[in-house]
Design a protein that fits this description.
Layout: H1 7-21, H2 25-42, H3 63-74, H4 76-99, H5 102-110, E1 111-112, E2 118-127, E3 133-140, E4 148-156, E5 162-171, E6 177-192, E7 205-221, E8 227-241, H6 250-255, E9 269-281, E10 292-304, E11 311-325, E12 332-345, E13 356-358, E14 373-375, E15 377-390, E16 393-405, E17 418-427, E18 436-443, E19 452-460
Antiparallel strand pairs: 1-2, 2-3, 2-19, 3-4, 4-5, 5-6, 6-7, 7-8, 8-9, 9-10, 10-11, 11-12, 12-15, 13-14, 15-16, 16-17, 17-18, 18-19
Helix pairs in contact: 1-2
Length: about 475
Amino acid sequence: MKPRMSRVVRRGLRSALTLARSGGLAASFAVAMVIAPRNAAAEDPPKRDVPDYEGRPPPPPSAGDVALWIPRVIFSPVYFTSEFLIRRPIGALITAAERANVPSTLYDFFAFGPDHKAGLVPLAFVDFGFNPSVGLYAFWDDAFFKGDDLRLLASTWGTDWLAGSLTQRIRLPGARSLTLGVEAIRRPDHVYYGTGPSTLQSAQGRYGEEYLEGTVSFDVPLWRSSRVQTALGVRTAGFYDGHFHDDPTLFQRVEAGVYALPPGFASGYTAETNRILVALDSRRRYPAPGSGVRLQGQALLGNDLAESPASGWVRTDATAAGYLDLDGHRRVVSLAVETSFSDPLGSSPVPFTELVTLGGDKAPMPGFYPGRLVDRSAAVATLRYRWPIGPWLNGSMEAAVGNVFGAHLDGFDPGLLRLEAALGLESDSSPDNAIHFLIGFGTETFDHGGQVDSFRLAFGTSRF
């Protein structure tokens, strides 16, 4: 049976033939080509689904798919906090600020000159449990010649809380740099809990410090993110009984027999230092590190100039870390294992501020107070997740297990380890003036029950 054409199609063809006989061949062809396909398509039957020729049902979920629900459920509160309470609100705020041209307006206000190579920025930092501080950060790129960068930081909270640093960084060919720096600090609110892995939060005593250091360092970048840095310096430190609100002082704790006077407290010290850092890092340098492995070793030799006969100490640190970029967009999971050792050279003990320390922003396990854990050695394993929130702001979550121990991990026991966790924000800008927010906690040793005994909340921009 021949297929039958619709009435509309037949009328279109009949009109086209009529126009063709009258000399309108082009017009009739156009009419037929437009009308016929549309009506033919209108009468085509609907497309059927592609049949399952294999005749098999969809495969059941694998054991890996089922197992993924375990971390999803466990970390769902963390995901909810990071995604809906941090990333999305802050991301929306950053987007609104960029649309309103706020960042460029502030940049133009605080930076000077046609190329914005100089500027002055206010500082503020709050670390609950310590005195806050306010100050200024000044920068001047290409100050006295091209490649000469100056940085000045100054912070204060009264006449007994003063801190400042001046740095001159000279950029050399091959991305190398020579840095000269001076740093001075006077503050009365440091904390001390004694030495050893089992110190208690209740043993906290306050002490003050006067510190001055001058350094010269040389930095040589190598393959990818690898580098070598050497430094020479002279530092002097003196200590005194501190104060913060109604907290007990260090001397009061010593008189009560909580712990002995820490080594070096009574006399202070003046030392010449030599430091070398070697890092082998397979991650690319720009635009973001991404996945890779990092091996880093550092050694510092301190020679006490006031001791006779000569005495001093050596501090060594070693780190092995692996990084995995989950999607190529700076969502990085890392696992790092760190060990640190501090050993005396000579008959005098190592000053207590030159021992291995955990806690604070300059050491592992930042969920603890700065100076919370002190001894001759330490071992820490840290699992961290870092992700971008905005074009210049990153979020971070970490959990760490570790503690301090005697010489060369003497007395190491899994029951003496502590747990630390922290959630934070940090700016992805110049390390000279980074903005950060951190909320974290630390626990007692596992043998002591592992209960939370330390809570830390800090935010602002400062490095003192």
